[in-house]
Amino acid sequence: MIFNETYYLLKDRYIREIDNLVLSDVRIGLYLTAVRLSDNSVGTSSTLPLEHPICLKENREFGDFSPLKIRGKRVTEILETDRKSQIISSLKIAVLNAISSGIIFSGKYKVKENCDPIQLVDLEKKQTITIVGAFHSYIRKISETGNRLFVLEKNKKALRGEFHQYYVEASQYEKVVPDSDVLLITGQTLVNGTIDELLSLVSPGCQVIVAGPSCGIIPDVLFEKGVSIVGGTRITRPEIVFSIVSEGGLGYHLLEYCAAKICILGENEGKAE
Questions:
Q1: Phi and psi at residue 26, in whole multiples of 5°?
Q2: 119 in a domain, yes or no?
Q3: How many domains does the chain contain in total?
Q4: Residue 85 burial class via C-beta count within 10 angstroms: exposed 0-12, middle 13-18, buried 19 and up
Q5: Structural domain of residue 196, as residue ranges?
Q6: Which of 26, 46, 110, 221 could form an S-S bond across to 265 if both were Cys, CB 3.0 to 4.6 Å?
Q7: 271, pLDDT greater than 70
């Protein structure tokens, strides 16, 4: 899995002191999760929704990584736990993003600042573009170009009415991903673990972009798996990230108040400016 491979790459090559890092603060909002580590690094992730939690007595959870049992944990405990839940999945990616944040801007990678990934797609060239997730701004922009467009999404209601013509039920991904010339994937697939299967179906020559507030991991493994561009964020005002997350903020709130878009470019995507 991309998550495991990235974690062990960080542990073995980049962060020798990872065993000493501790979760010093955490916020799990409706849409975003944010963590601060003991070295003051900050990471964010999409929050996987938990619909209608079952609160039967035998299902109640008071173990590790339940409320009041998250802060103070070593990051290795959360990253290596076998416990599974939507909250743990969201925490894992946020922690991995926090650990990665300093490395991304160390000079090792080609980074374009203040750049949206859609700016790096040649929309004048007629091709088949598939979007995984309801990126409305991307859907609108691409739909105006005459390119063949598919939008893979679980819930058709997540798309505005005029975009329903592009909707493909998410379970049908095997039918559209191999035929795509451009594949735009939401970073939430890193959180829910579906990105590996999507990337396994990509055809040679496809321009693959992974984007969103969950895309703060070092891109080495993603690039090895065929990703061309990672569209993430640089946190510019970490002191207000937690307020935004706590108040029901989404990715665009981060970009408005405390973050800027970046693109990390693969080897074949030109040079950073």
A1: -155, 140
A2: yes
A3: 2
A4: middle
A5: 110-238+251-265
A6: 110
A7: no
* Rounded distance between C-alpha atoms, residue 206 and residue 183, angstroms: 7
Q: Say how far apart CA 253 and CA 236 lie, in whole Å.
A: 13
Q: How far apart are CA 134 and CA 206, in angstroms?
A: 20
Q: What is the pTM of this model?
A: 0.91
Based on the domain organization, do 120 and 218 belong to the same domain? yes
User: Quick one: pLDDT at residue 270?
Assistant: 56
Dihedral sign of CA atoms 215, 108, 242, 33 in order: positive
Give the C-alpha separation, 1 to 227, whole Å: 14
pLDDT in tens, 203-254: 999 999 999 999 999 999 999 999 999 999 999 999 999 999 999 999 999 9
List residues bridging with 265 in a β-sheet.
110, 229
Is 203 found in the same domain as 115? yes
Point out which residues pair with 167 in neighbouring strands: 151
Distance between CA 188 and CA 195 in Å, rounded?
Answer: 9
Span 133-157, pLDDT tens digits? 999 999 999 999 989 999 999 999 9
Residue 93 has a CB neighbour count (10 Å cut-off) of: 29
Mean pLDDT computed over 20-25: 95
Contact 218, 10 (CB under 8 A): yes
As a whole number, mean pLDDT of residues 90-118 equals 94
What are the Cα distances from residue 117, in Å, to 136, 151, 264? 14, 17, 9
Distance from first CA to last CA of the chain, Å, rounded? 32
* Confidence (pLDDT) at 54: 64
